[in-house]
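Lay summary. Proteins are chains of building blocks that fold into shapes, and those shapes determine what they do. In this project we predict the shape from the chain. Here is one chain we studied, written as its sequence of building blocks.
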Amino acid sequence: MTMRRRKFLKSSAATLGAWTLGGTAPYYFMRNIAKAAEGDTIKVGILHSLSGTIAIIETSLHNAELLAIEEINAKGGVLGKKIQPIVEDPQSVVQVFAEKAKKLLLEDKVAAVLGCYTSASRQSVLPIFEQYNGVLLYPTLYEAQECSKNCFYTGAVPNQQLDDFVPWIINTLKRKKFYMVGSNYIYPKETNREVKALLEKHGGQNVGEEYAPLGHTEFSTIINNISGSGAEVVFSDLVGDSIVAFYKQFKQFGFTADDLPICTPITTEQEIAAMGPENAEGHYTSFNYFQSVDSPENKSFVERYKAKYGKDAVTNAVMEAAYFQTYFLAHAIEKVKSTEADALIYEGLPGQEFQAPQGKVKIDEQNHHTWLWARIGKANPQGQFDVVWKSENWIRPQPWVPYLYPDKTCNFTDQRVKERLSKPWSVEKNRSGTINL
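And here is the predicted shape, written in a compact code that computers can read:
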């Protein structure tokens, strides 16, 4: 042990001397070597609800990340060390997400956190990651209008889900009159604002808009309102247990997909399994991934997932992002040979690519969001989706919706940032999306 320590210190001193004499190294590099060498494992936080109203979907994200960690560890781990998942259950409560995030960063000292589902939970933890310079990988589709240097967004943003979906509904389904129903929090309200802008652009019409409390399961009044509105399509961004209740009651009221289709950017195979395929048949979802994607990578992924979690387990778009973001993190740590936050944020994670079940995906170097594919699926009697439309190529993410915020940008490769990579520094993100140094 003493000889190895002397050899390490001698090598480090020689490297430092070379940089001092003529080379340039990021300020954090020398302390990174020591940090990456600490302990026998690399701790990674897993922050998804395993109880409460959102557990119906978040449990699958948790499962996918554990599957990826198991696979990575079976191949030797990262930097010769096993990844150790530190699991916390925030119980579908926004405030608990913040408490658990702080614990993971300050007490458990994890290298990064894989976590959150709702936008409310993400926004509750972001100030903590920014204050303590932690790394969050967030796998859920969301409403965009956000950039944080400390967060890597691996789920879809509106230009990867809505921009093709809304005109497809209008032009292919010939349905122009939309009735919007969502859960009462950030994501549904912002998403519906984007949908209304697209309706105006493509000749559609908003004939109604209602929101139910998170976890709400009684929809008779809303369905009656829909029935009398003249709507030709229901656009739903309900989440969690509310999805299951709404679809069931919608069918009980006598509506079929032929009469009044539900179109949604958030209902997955997971919720269909919970409600029963007969309640979702014929309705539509826009996502980057479905379990039915016909590729060797996806077939292998589905087989491995079912082998671990049971033959009746289903995969879905959000958990697929949770799966591949775990690989993003592992490959980033390998790349920079460090678990130091700035190393991962500016060197390790940007530009990472992975051959995911949906197709090749990549973290955009400028905005920390992910290049993804777009697909529209029609729910079938088996509880799966038949893909009825897909993009010709992967789509670059636009964190600021251009038809709502034409002057907003997000660029973490700004030259001012590059010039200061060799010095202690911090970046503070303000709500306008700009970077202050």
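What the prediction tells us: The longest helix spans residues 2-21.
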